[in-house]
Design goal:
Strand order of the largest sheet: 1-4-3-2-5-6-7-11-9
Order of helices and strands: HEHEHEHEHEHEHHEEEEHE
Oligomer: single chain
Number of strands: 11
Radius of gyration: 18 Å
Distance between the termini: 32 Å
Strand content: 15-25%
Structural class: alpha/beta
Largest sheet: 9 strands, mixed
Amino acid sequence: RLPRRNLSPVPLAQLRPALVNAMTGAAGLTQASPSSASQASEQQDIPGWRGLLVVFGASGGTGLVLVQLALEQGWAVRAFVRSRLMLQRELSDIGAHEALEILEGDLADLSAVQVATDGARAVISVAGAKPETAPGPMAEAVPAMVEGCRKHGVSKLIYQACALAAAPGERVGWLTQASLVRTIVRWQLRSTVVDDNEQVMLYLQDEVQDVPWVVSRPGGLVEGDSAGNLSPNLDPFKTGTVRYVDVADWTLAQVYSDTYVGKMPRLYYGAVETPI
């Protein structure tokens, strides 16, 4: 479960009435709708308020930590999840935070995906197939996110893939560690995650030049306290784990950074052969 932290909620008196109405009704829960999304865009003008982040897959391992860190850092968050009850349970008291809006929806509902991006400073996707044997939703959902970003003037799209996914043009080889693990994941575990991520990365590289995007490819994700800074790199795949909290922290840093725009770094700890 999510490690608890002490949050300092923004007092309601600091928020505009329209934002209060949009984000605090029913303990911060709303259905996906154009009106609530457009109202939330007013956060950009509130002194001391950093703006709105839309997080797809907020109830997953990275997403839970990401939501918490974003709230701590002064962001408002719109969480797009399959189950609001699950997210509320995992976030506990944070689930009623004044700056958190929860949209319950399905990534297959492409119009709802587009609507959810309205008013955002950045869109972050840490979503994926659940269970991993289910058809991968991201190859269709990400183009909808991009269209939403175009329509609503969103400044950045940040997408979390996985270290096992090969970037366009990257050679995996026949008898490499990557090829062996990919065979197990695809055929023995019947996971769709690698193929789904690779379709997304190909789409972003070939068809999205007008929306700044970043793709991260972290190693195996695990719980636990921070293990240090991550090293973005283009090294070949290797086994190893990284902490949810460190990936979430790196992801949030990309909202204002252009260092990795248009790039697809793997994320590992320590020294790497090909840093970027």
